[in-house]
Amino acid sequence: MRSARAAVAAIVLCLGIAAAGPEARAQAPVRPAVEAAPQAVPGFWDPRRRPERPDLSRITVIRFLTETDYPPFNFTGPDGNPAGFNVDLARAICDEIKVTCTVQMRRFETLLDALSSNRGDAIIASMAVTPQMRARLDFSDPYYRAPARFVSRRDAVMTEIRPEFLEGKKIGAVAGTAHEAYLKAMFTDAEIKAYPNDDALRQALRRAEVDLIFGDGISLAFWVNGTDSADCCAFSGGPFVESRYFGEGVGIGVRKGNDLLRQALNWALFRVWEKGRYTDLWLRYFSISPF
Q1: CA-CA distance, 165 to 147, in Å (whole number)?
Q2: Which domain holds residue 155?
Q3: Which of 75, 126, 168, 183 could crosslink 6 through cysteines, CB 3.0-4.6 Å?
């Protein structure tokens, strides 16, 4: 997961192949085409299926574990305290449950051991829900997904993408990723070109070596909207979320059998979404939607 990190961890653990994580965000001038569309906020909760409120009196504190450096999801703020989308969501959850909430930042590879040794109660670190991880943890309902997206140069944006529309086109992807595997399986009449990493892939698009690139929507959203892209490119088509390739989503991990906490998290997540706080957080951290 993090480089195996999880916006793309949903991909990495689903197929057991490597992918690269998102980059830091930066502002870019507003342009026509993609940015003109309304911001899309993902929703994973059905208002007709309200979770039952568990006995919250049995929960007195939630010790969240998160990663040290995965902006904008988790990072150290200017005051030295944990910050980011995951951190703010954890605090919103604790507000709903009305319990004390602590957030401890650790290296991603130490999170599972910290949870199993009771140094924390829940992992909120963009951890993918996969069969491999379900064998080790129980998870809350998903609170976001890492969709796959196509990006093209701004003078060649496509509103819709289907395999037949890309016949003969050159499409780039990072070698060995679920994105490359998906292209090879579904876009059989396109010319698939593999690159060693995200930087090489994106440079290929800027230099017009390929017509489109295909990769993790979250990291691509930051690149498209950041200074490194030099305002060259934009999303084409919509998101791809097939779980066989791109995972079931990202959830909050708890120790196996901790049903009370898992149910409390599900109840609180629904409440945070229902009150509009989830939307507020999403729009604060994602200036251009990956969806």
Answers
A1: 20
A2: 148-240
A3: 126
